[in-house]
## 1
Amino acid sequence: MAYRDISQNYTEIEAAAWRIAAESQDLNGFFERLAPLLPEAAHLALLIQGTPEETLTLLLLHQGRSHAGTLPLTPALRGDCQNVQSGSGWSAAPAPSIAALLPPGWPPALSCTALKDGETGAGLMLTDSVVLAEALRQPVQTVLAQERRRRTLTLEFEAAQAERRALMQRLKRPDESQPIVGAQTGLAEVMDAVRQVAATDTPILILGETGAGKEVVARALHTRSHRAGGPFLRVNCGAIPPELIDSELFGHERGSFTGAVGVHKGWFERADGGTLFLDEVGELPAAAQVRLLRVLQDGSFQRVGGERTLNVDVRLVAATNRDLRAAARAGTFREDLWFRIAVFPIPLPPLRERQQDLPALAAHFALRAAERLGLPPRMPDADDLARLTAYPWPGNVRELASVIERAAILGDGRRLEIARALGAAPVASVGKPVDAADESVFPSLDRAMQRHIEAALARCHGRIEGPFGAAQLLEINPHTLRSRMRKLGVAWRMYRE
């Protein structure tokens, strides 16, 4: 009796196919495990749409063995495949271009049907047994969908890694775990709070002025958490138009509004398994606040124009420069959302309240500016640091970075023009340098010597000995220099990067 007439074992074959599909990572592995379970008389072939789309993958099962190969997708073959995809049910025999792909000795009149990956055509199935094909079609389509999702996730992960590497390159940092400037001094309490809460999934609210470094703290939370291997995505809620906020946060389906030509994954979906940083969360409109509250409560949401509920595992870190507690009392921000995101608030002090970090921050930004601009590195001297300390820094760390870069450009590689970068006159009168501390008092000899040594240390990045040290620049013995530094209270460490 021919194999095409045997139907009593298709139930066992289908059960085995579903079991293997649940354990397989790709279609090749599925076929390798399935081949020994089929009768030797069976002929089964799959034509799978390849990546890129100009190729086809041909999989053959016969006599307990599987074979795989890649073929070019010619115009004739593309047209014949599309004809089968657009039809319904089985075709009595494949088109000549499809039949020509089969090896010698195979039956010339195999039945042919389309395989689907969701709503999209994924390939063709050819077999000499309709019963076998009906048993295998759903498991094969399931493996195809799993493989497509795995490939999509791999591509998204690679894109996220490339984006992270590009960010690290722009920031001139080898990785995200590089120590934060001021972590042991002005930001010591902030970093203690980060260490306490990083290992949890508790929502975090970072409170601080614009430019104070809220994103740096958010990244520190991410890199110290168990989600460090997942994505870190930043969204500036104040930069998204109100009519697009739902689409950007939660995604949209094709045709949900004019211009929605395809499915769009929102920020929550893209941050699944990682951390989503919502900067300026107080700018969210009321409708978006409601949907955000639901995601925080149970991790579920729907895309705009969609009916299917999606679930994500995202750690939320929000930040604001507004008084959200007062906004909640005034009714301009949802009080229940405030309670939800402010489980563990972290206040971030402004730069003017942590002036002990100014020398290290200024040196850090000076080195970064020199590298970006292709200039010799120049450090701020004692007068520069006095000017920086006296300035109120309304724009915080972000403004400091801009001032240092502007000073490097104005100095043209010779020095940092801090005074000009801050808008001050570099010279008070001809032959008389500006004294940032007090221009009306002539400095003592010890004070002048202290400034001169500090300027040398700044130029030599805190190095005392060696061919590039301050002692050689000042033409004195290194031991003599150290003795004078101790007497004058000069600390070389503040001039190191």
Note: Residues 1-8, 425-440 have pLDDT under 50 and may be disordered.
## 2
Amino acid sequence: MAYDEKTAERIRHLLAERHDVAEKKMMGGLVFMVKGGMCCVVSGRGGLMVRVGADAGKLVKPPHVKPMRMAGRIVKNFIRVMPEAYRTHAQLQKWIDRGVAFTTTLPPKTKPQKSSRDRGAPAPLKLMSGPGGPRSR
């Protein structure tokens, strides 16, 4: 399912001044990463998923702001904001600012070191000494 490209473009505009933003297509939408951490997601299912931290429960205001659910479970630290709650520039700015404010409190993500296996090198051979191994012949 495609995400809302118009909303994605609006978010790009809001985050344009930052140099620590990256985009990734995943979870059926477009994820905006800040400092390597997930900040918000433009969803293909409608709405915007925003990472707000422990304030998530306080920000839920039906019908336009809901708990974030995935696979039937509530996802901590995230909320789902329906399009009615970010129609204007100021409304969307408020939600993106909340996501950035929380995400920037997290330690920066570092890329894990890849093992030789991940880089395409052949896996080391294991010599077996039992039946069928090289010493049983």
Note: The beta strands are 21-26, 29-34, 37-43, 48-51, 65-70, 73-81.
## 3
Amino acid sequence: MLINCDLGESELMAADGRQQRILSMIQLANVCCGEHAGSRDLTKLTMRQCFDAKVKTGAHPGYPDPEHFGRRPLFGVEYDAQQISELVSAQVAFAKEAAEEAGLALYHVKPHGALYNEAAENGEVAEAIAKGVRKVLRDVFLVGLAKSVMVGVFRRQGFVVLREAFADRRYTAEGLLVPRSSPDALIHDPEEAHRQMLQLKRFSDTICVHSDSPNSLQMLKALN
């Protein structure tokens, strides 16, 4: 079971050592491309930290909406499928360049936030993401929510998929993530996160803990 975490989203975490501690406990880093959070300089710094930690690195493209941390649904509101492909392509291209400057090659791509959740339910969004990635890279894994629409779409677009589950998020009866607007969306207890990982690992390839989740370091220790 590969543990992954979204990084490069907080200048403070990169500066105070928390990001490096997270890197010591994960196998895959989803590095923000400087659009939904962070900055281009933080992306480059995070790539260098990934190189030092010997962690496989991926691009983490999202809506350029830092006011809402890329977690506001924008498909059909501000972006159509073509525009999603273009934003994904541009962010993955930048992440590829930043990774190469640090001596790395991108291993995977994982959409962020609202873009990820929309793709889990909407095949048109998932296809747009895959097409955007393919403009830049073909030999990367795509990360998608296990048992969701996006897994099949990514595969039909020619990618190998890492099926993802979440240790720090609760699920709906349909197998989607409980919206963050719900008071019970997040898991805070490391032991509960560990129990959830054990339940979900049989149909997933990688499990996520968000770096901005409460007790993220303690949860990662429990999962390890």
Note: The chain has nine helices and seven strands.
